[in-house]
Amino acid sequence: MRFTVPLALALAAGAILPAAAQSQAQINVPANVSWLHEGSGLILRSKIAGMPRGTIQDSTRVGLDMMVQYAEGEETAVTLYIYRPALMSVPLWFDRSETQILSRLDVFGTVTPAGPARAFAGPKAATASALRRVYVPGKGPNKSTGLAIIPLGEWLVAVRVSSQSLDPAALDARIDAVIAGIVWPDKIAESPAAVPVAACADALAYDSHAKSMKPDAGQSLLGALIIGVADAGKDKDGKPVPPPLYCREGAATRQYAVYRAAGDTKNSYTLALGDAGRVVTVWPGVSTEKKDVGYQVSFGDLDRRLVYPNFDKLPEPQALIQAVSQLRPVSAVARGSKNVQIFVPK
Questions:
Q1: Which of 26, 61, 162, 209 gets the most CB atoms within 10 Å of its CB?
Q2: Are 319 and 209 in contact (CB under 8 A)?
Q3: Tens digit of pLDDT for each residue in 328-337?
Q4: Dmax over Cα atoms in the chain, in whole Å?
Q5: How far is CA 83 from the centre of its chain?
Q6: Nearest to 18 by CA among 66, 81, 64
Q7: Residues in the chain with pLDDT < 70?
Q8: How far apart are CA 92 and CA 21, in angstroms?
């Protein structure tokens, strides 16, 4: 189950067309031929666990968010998602995907987890860096449904299986068979151990009067440069920085959930949109002139980061979504690039 928030990010001003806004494309591959996803190096055979491959779709047209289906008649259905999230965190995106399952009352009714979420080592991995869980739907034809999310370098592979005939234990075994049926690349960077997201111990103090500030070219450039360094996953000395542990702030919805990194308890948060890898982040702004510049805002798409006008105070999630949906970005940096685009007047 996939849910992408249809935000018209940056389109009002015509500055940038995010990957999320582009039309979906179907990839035509002969039924008896294996298919290679070039970005991740995964190879998907014509059959997995005895199930023939169905449609292959690309929501970005550049291979950043793929959906591949397999099915055994109408009894058991498998959907694989291969995507490159703006923020790499197996626990966070597992939490977002699980929220979609638990909130689909129209399809599954009240869903009961068949056991705790558990970490496991994916293929060719030594660390239990992946997460999985199986659920029992409260209504509908399915006897069980399940989810697994596996890291693959800067990519995530989400496995969704639902079955009208398999009980939870058998479906869990089918997930294993699906994972084993994928041809994984030989060289896979080791990912950190995965720990399921828990609720935050305390609450953030949003300011309901927070407002967007006047764009500033210097601040826009500095914000984009900081984002570029953070996205590189290295500190100022060039050493790898492990991803933070996140807790969930408040209740999650299908549309979004708020997450806080350990140590950032009162002045920053990440808004994860839907479950397809896109985030909005707000954190204290940095100034070279020792003045109060408020809070920096950025939207992380699958292929780039957009920087928006700062807020004077810590905004509520809805105010943040409204600002990123309606305001023109002030700068942008493509993923993996050091070239910053500035959109505010000089």
A1: 162
A2: no
A3: 898 888 888 7
A4: 65
A5: 8
A6: 64
A7: 1-24, 217-241, 264, 287-290, 344-346
A8: 23
Length reported for the chain: 346
Cβ atoms within 10 A of the Cβ of 305, count?
A: 24
Q: How far apart are CA 98 and CA 341, in angstroms?
A: 36
* pTM confidence score: 0.90
Per the CB < 8 A criterion, the answer to whether 149 and 130 are in contact is yes
pLDDT, one tens digit per residue, over 255-276 is: 999 999 987 678 899 999 999 9
Which residues are within 8 A (CB) of 117 and not within 5 positions of it... i.e. 6 or more apart?
Answer: 94, 98, 131, 132, 133, 196
Residue bearing tokens 């990912």: 191
The tokens 């999630």 sit on which residue? 317
